[in-house]
Structure formats: structure tokens, C-alpha cells
Specification:
Blueprint: H1 4-27, H2 35-61, H3 73-80, H4 87-115
Helix pairs in contact: 1-2, 1-4, 2-3, 2-4, 3-4
């Protein structure tokens, strides 16, 4: 039960991340959408899932709170590589990744402190 709730929360956060990416693309569509950009968006969802999973394991296995910031490097590096393709949009995607990661860690930390 201790691992099941964060994993389900991980899947919900990844679905919310996917919906936010799609909503950004609906509100401000990309002019020349290519299949590689669609693959990039799906790859970013996998990276977000791995980021949240690593954050959960760090939160559960270590008491050093500064290590929690390490997994957020993965999506930031992914979107920083694509700053030349869509410069302003990449910063929005980076911010979205960081916000979802922060919300996920806040909820997991709350559940850990409340239920042990």
C-alpha cells in the first residue's frame, strides 16, 4: 500500500502532464507540426514518469532532502536541447515539468508524514 498510492499518483500526474501539453498545443498550435515533434512529446511523458518515479524513491529511501532536486534535471535537459526549435514554448514545458514534479513531491511527502 505504501508504494501503490505514489505509483497511482505518478500515473495521474503523467496523465495531467499529457493533458497540459495537449492544451498548450491547442491554445497556441505549432506552425509546422512534424511526426518527430509528436514523438518528442510522448518521449517527454516517459521522461516525466521516470522523474516522478526517481523522486518517489529518493523521498522514500533517503533522509537528505537536497537530493530531491536531482531528478528534475532530466526534463529540464530534454527541453533545453530544443530551445532552438521552439524557444518560448520550451520554457513553458520546463516550468510545467517542474510544477508537476513539485506538486507530486508535496503530495507524496504529505502522505509519507501522515501515514508513515
Amino acid at each position: 500500500m505504501k508504494i501503490l498510492v505514489p505509483v497511482i499518483l505518478n500515473i495521474i500526474c503523467c496523465a495531467a502532464y499529457c493533458l497540459c501539453l495537449n492544451q498548450i498545443n491547442v491554445c497556441k498550435p505549432i506552425a509546422h507540426m512534424d511526426i518527430s515533434i509528436g514523438i518528442l512529446f510522448r518521449f517527454s511523458i516517459v521522461i516525466q514518469f521516470l522523474t516522478l518515479l526517481a523522486g518517489m524513491f529518493i523521498l522514500r529511501l533517503t533522509r537528505r532532502k537536497f537530493l530531491i532536486a536531482l531528478p528534475v534535471i532530466m526534463p529540464v535537459l530534454l527541453w533545453s536541447n530544443h530551445l532552438d526549435i521552439f524557444p518560448h514554448r520550451a520554457f513553458v514545458y520546463m516550468g510545467l515539468s517542474i510544477v508537476i514534479y513539485g506538486i507530486y513531491l508535496f503530495i507524496c511527502g504529505y502522505l509519507t508524514n501522515r501515514y508513515g
